[in-house]
Design goal:
Porin; 14-stranded antiparallel barrel
């Protein structure tokens, strides 16, 4: 009966670990990174953001702290991105490890609408030294399904909040070279719920009992896991300005080592109480895990063709291959460590964009991007992180309301080709979750706005 804990609870706690660094969906950014950090850059699908934004907005410092030197005096930028995401599972089929069908509703949208805030500030300390900060929510997720949906053993509700504060400094030793560095402080909190298949738990250790059938929702118990943690890292940047009409930026965000502590709470059905009494499982406990958030390297290029047109390009790499396994340790002595195989791969993001200055006050922007997914196949894709390749189409505008106040707005439609979820009960960690197969096609509409002030 110890397999109740070995399979169901480990997944729940490891899920918190995933979510604490985790994703939005297969329609925002690779893995579980939220790229929606700059309204100015989003209008060009983030093209050239590592080389800084247009005059007024300083949001490029999230990607490259050296771009602080582009703005003399004091600057503040506040942002909010509204993300309306959609990912529906189609042709869903589910069964237990011993072949019993799992009944349930088809479920609705796997993803929920969310708002991603950001704030930036910069101060010119001397002629060649600058200080600043960025405050962002770079990882986030809100998903919700009803407790009777067909994939309930793989996940019901997921909610993540992340807060990243990065104070930074930049130095311009020459007219054409700027260097920047910052220190990341990040706080993460997550909540995760799933159903536990008591029928499968009992039959995996005992002869089938009357009225306790695998996959029968009437016997389900439910688990909720909450976790939070602090993590720390750094960011570096270089900005090259070989001529007044060229800017080349290289940004680096370090990996973050996340040590997550979580607490599991159970709502136990009568049959679950039987299972708990026989095994010591389904009892409130704690768990912990270690995960490495990927390091990121980005290259941005901006070129002013003339007084009207600017062309830009961006290339970024994220080392998701470090997210290959989850090893979860439990406070419950009856519960052995659990290992989940992710087998993710590194990813790239590439975008092209342009800005047209319609007047001295108004700038129009457009761009396209490709964001590579990190999951190598359907057997590693689940209902919590249905990651896949994404394609961006973006438009935006910037308008100078006054000499010192600038408004930026952007809209992006992001979509993914149809992909599969192929979770198998004989895969490691899936015995009590069972088989779950289906297709997922995701999209998102992102509206981002910002207000920048110069003092």
């Amino acid at each position: 009966m110890n397999k109740t804990i070995r399979t169901a609870l480990p997944f729940l706690v490891s899920g918190v670990a995933i979510l604490s660094i985790a994703t939005s969906d297969d329609a925002h950014a690779a893995g579980f990174f939220l790229r929606d950090q700059s309204a100015c850059a989003q209008g060009m699908a983030d093209a050239g953001v590592s080389a800084g934004c247009d005059d007024g907005s300083i949001s490029g410092i999230f990607f490259n702290p050296a771009t602080l030197t582009l703005n003399d005096g004091v600057h503040l930028t506040g942002e909010a991105a509204l993300i309306a995401a959609s990912a529906h599972m189609k042709e869903a089929r589910a069964s237990t490890y011993n072949g019993y069908p799992i009944a349930g509703t088809p479920g609705g949208n796997l993803l929920q609408t969310a708002v991603v805030p950001a704030a930036y500030g910069s101060w010119q300390l001397t002629d060649d030294t600058y200080a600043g900060f960025s405050f962002n929510a770079p990882w986030g997720l809100v998903t919700s399904q009803d407790e009777t949906w067909i994939g309930r053993y793989h996940g019901i509700t997921s909610a993540l909040r992340s807060y990243n504060l990065t104070p930074m400094l930049a130095w311009r030793p020459t007219d054409w070279l700027s260097l920047g560095a910052g220190f990341q402080v990040q706080y993460l909190t997550a909540r995760l719920t799933s159903a536990v298949d008591i029928g499968s738990a009992v039959s995996s250790q005992l002869l089938p009992l009357p009225g306790i059938t695998p996959g029968d929702g009437a016997n389900d118990s439910y688990a909720e896991v909450r976790g939070n943690t602090w993590s720390y890292g750094y960011t570096l940047g270089i900005l090259l300005e070989p001529s007044p009409d060229w800017r080349i930026g290289i940004g680096y965000r370090s990996k973050l080592d996340v040590d997550l502590d979580g607490a599991a709470r159970f709502t136990v059905s009568p049959s679950g109480q039987l299972a708990s009494g026989l095994s010591g499982a389904l009892q409130d406990t704690g768990g912990s895990t270690h995960i490495t958030l990927p390091q990121t390297v980005s290259l941005g290029i901006r070129h002013d063709l003339d007084d009207r047109w600017t062309l830009a390009a961006e290339l970024a790499w994220m080392q998701w291959s470090e997210f290959d396994r989850l090893v979860v340790k439990f406070d419950n002595a009856d519960q052995p460590d659990d290992v989940t195989v992710n087998n993710w791969k590194d990813s790239i993001f590439v975008s092209l964009g342009a800005t047209y200055r319609l007047s001295d006050k108004l700038r129009l922007r457009a761009g396209v991007a490709f964001d590579e997914g990190v999951i190598p196949g359907g057997e590693y894709r689940d209902v919590r992180i249905p990651d896949a390749d994404r394609y961006w189409v973006s438009v935006g505008a910037g308008y100078d309301l006054t000499d010192s106040i600038t408004f930026d707005g952007a809209y992006s439609h992001i979509f993914s080709p149809e992909t599969t979820i192929d979770q198998h009960a004989n895969d490691e960690g899936n015995q009590l979750r069972g088989n779950l197969n289906g297709k997922v096609e995701g999209s998102a509409d992102v509206v981002n706005t910002s207000l920048s002030m110069t003092f």
